Amino acid sequence: MQLSEGDDDPLGLHLAALAVLDDRGTVVGWSRRAQDLVGYPGPDVIGRAAFDVLVAAGDLAAVKDAAGRCRRTGGWFGVLALRHRSGHRVELGLRVSAISRDQVREWFLVGAPAAGVLEWQRDRAVLEGLYRRCPIGMVVHSPDMKILRVNRAIERFTGVPAADFCGMPTGVLLVPDDARKATDRVRQVIRTGKSLVYSEQFVRLEQDPARERVASVSSFAMKDPAGRILGVAEMIEDITERHRAQQRLALLAEANSRVGTALDVWQTAQELADVVVPHLADSASVDLMQRVTRGEELTPALAAPVVRAAATSIAAQQPAPGEPRGEPIEHEPGTPQGRCLADGLPVLEPVLRSDRVSLEPGPGGSAPELGAHSLIVVPLAARGLVLGVMSLWRSRRPDPFEADDLTLAHELASRAALAIDNARRFIQQQQTAFTLQSSLLPSAVPQQSAVEVAHRYLPAGAGSGLGGDWFDVIALSGARVALVIGDVVGRSLHAAAMMGRLRTAVHTLASLDLEPDEVLSRLDDLVNLLAAEQEAAGERPVVQQVVSATCLYAVYDPISRRCSAARAGHPPPVVTTPDGQASLLDLPASPPLGLGGLPFEAREFELAEGSLLTLYTNGLIGERTIDVDEGVARLCAALTRPANPLQETCEAVVSALVPTRPADDVALVIARTRVLPEQDVASWQLPREAATASRARAFVTDKLTEWGLEHLAFTTELIASELVTNAYRYAGDPMILRLIRERSLVCEVSDGSHTSPHLRRARTTDEGGRGLFLVAQMAERWGTRYSREGKTVWTEQPLHGDPG
User: Fold this and answer.
1) At what angle do helices 713-730 and 771-778 cross, to 10 degrees?
2) N or C: which end of the chain has fewer CB within 10 A?
3) Considering Cα of 52, then 55, then 56, then 57, what sign does the dihedral take?
């Protein structure tokens, strides 16, 4: 019988060789494909014994063994070597099956080249592995959105037997939202025929909706040879753990860039809370020890109150109004927060019990109000000390916290705690530095009669470093006053230290009653000396920013109403006349201290009573941020029509020109000039003669009697007599005696000599040399000041009490 394969062969039989043997092994059927494989046409084989025609002698035993198995089991499958008509061996894979026809048993043989059979076996093994042993899930969908088959991995993933899936609608076991996404994905592949590779989907089963998993799904269309879509196959891999690990790594990386961007405790705490919400928790709060927020030292045994430093939730990315930042928070010992603070160990409560959550305050109230069902509390610990705690809640996310979440939260808290502790230390250092700086500045202006003074000093915003701005009001002899303001270049502790040195030097130079330009010249020498010393000590890279300074030095005399001033690189002062007209004072410009160059030049001008003399540093006019001319114009506008209380004028200037967080230190001094009444000053020009001392005593006695200061007559007579006698003996004309009544009684004797008087202790045998010693014993203060015309020796006595 000749077996033929037609063109209409949907089962692919034309690819296999077909043969039929009777029960005795005689060939009774032969196909064209069999002829092609072994070379024998049908007529040459049919009716002959298959052993004689096809089997080589060397393979006879294997063929007999296969025949024996066929008879015992009714079939066989394997690979046999047959003899080609040309004589060479042909290895075929054969499947032998017993068939019965008219109660006669025959054997139906289907064969193909052994290589093709092995490939078919491998394909079948792969297909069998996909359905039975593959760890990746597989689902086959029909075009009408029914499940045709799933493998064992899907069975393990869902807990539903694989056989029960047949005929179920696509996405039947998922919660509605996830089922819709799964159905849309399959429909898209059916509609377009394009594969979707590695699309991630969140998967929640209806039987366990609280557990959220992540699956990587690859979908592709199954097509027949004609290109018709037979269905969609999906490979589904559970990547929940991998996805969460990636999220944790991404969160750690984000925290590294977002947390601790500034040395500010409050900002760092808020950055930590903002990072964990919503990536890890639905709500978060950060509570810190109050001492941490103040930059104070912590000790393990020191119990301190806790304050709310930051809080946020998915509902509002800001601290909740019900828990104001900085307000004390009490955590009872039995709460997770209390235990965490006491033990320094993290706490994980995957499921909050209803009898416990009321003890755990959330960022916007209590945990029950937020619907929280899971809690993590981790300590903020750094360098062996617990700085506070971070509390995390989940309310909207259905899955509870787990151990890996606790590890992640602990790692985030540990990193943030270092940033918070660094910020605490920075606050501590800043406070120490500002304390040092404040101690170098005047806490109050001295009592004097020349001017009424209001002043303000505003340090730059946090993180700007220490500045070297300073000011001073120094009482001078003769009822005069020195107004000083300066600015050391740079911002550092060195700048503050340099400022302290310069301020001390100014006080020393002021006590010598030098002219303003002479004071600046001496300061310039001092700055150059200090710079040279520091450079010699190897500090040049640090000190390059602080080897220069600006300064303005002005001296006002309330008797003559004259003011003498000089400036070294400093902005000129503003003068406001009594009628409210404000303008810059035209002072000669000179280089800053420490740069050398042109000499300093002073200028003298007259100020009407009630005028305002305003001294300031660059920070007030915004030299770094706005045009200087604009800043000066704003300053003059603020000083026009000043308020009668001088302090109000000072506050108005600061409010108008200084931002909330100035970029530079601001020093401001406003002085309202006074004039000493004429009746409080008496002056006499004395002739150069022997009786001058007695005439001086008479003038003093008469004037003190007029002023009602008779109790000072004896000592003042003696002082005036000794000073006039010295001038008569050792100096030249003119000799002027002056008395000034203000907060003390001032006695001055001026002459035309620059010879300096010296105080000495006379020996027993000396006839003279005791006069200046007696003057020093009777006066409260005494000194000498020099002018271009000569010198003045002055003394001060308290108006009340016995100076001796």
Assistant:
1) 150
2) C
3) negative
Selected from 3.60.40.10, 3.30.200.100, 3.30.230.10, 2.40.70.10, the CATH number assigned to the domain covering 447-673 reads 3.60.40.10
Q: Answer yes or no: same fold for 244-431 and 678-798.
A: no
CA separation for the pair 460, 665 (Å, rounded): 5
pLDDT in tens, 693-729: 899 999 999 999 999 999 999 999 999 988 888 888 8
At residue 766, does pLDDT exceed 50?
no
- Both structure tokens of 541: 């890279």
Q: Position of tokens 């930059």?
A: 295
Q: What is the pLDDT of residue 523?
A: 92
Distance CA 4, CA 9 (A): 11
Backbone angles phi, psi at 617, to 5 degrees: -105, 175
In 336-402, alpha helices (H): 336-343, 367-370
What distance lies between CA 501 and its chain's CA centroid?
35
- Contact predicate 753/730, CB 8 Å: yes
The H or E element containing residue 542 is: helix 540-543
The 10s digit of each residue's pLDDT in 478-515 is 999 999 999 988 777 788 888 888 999 999 999 888 89
pTM: predicted TM-score of the whole model, two decimal places: 0.63
| Class for the domain spanning 2-121 | alpha beta
Average of per-residue pLDDT values in the chain: 83
Out of 3.30.565.10, 3.90.1720.10, 3.30.413.10, 3.20.20.140, select the CATH number for domain 678-798: 3.30.565.10
Spatial separation of the C-alpha atoms in residues 670 and 575, rounded to whole Å = 10
Per-residue pLDDT reduced to its tens digit, 729-740 = 887 788 999 999
Q: Cα(first)–Cα(last) distance of the chain, in Å? A: 155
What are the residue boundaries of the structural domains of the chain, listed by start?
2-121, 134-238, 244-431, 447-673, 678-798
Alpha-carbon torsion angle 652, 658, 664, 669, nearest 10: -10
Structure tokens, 565: 């001033």
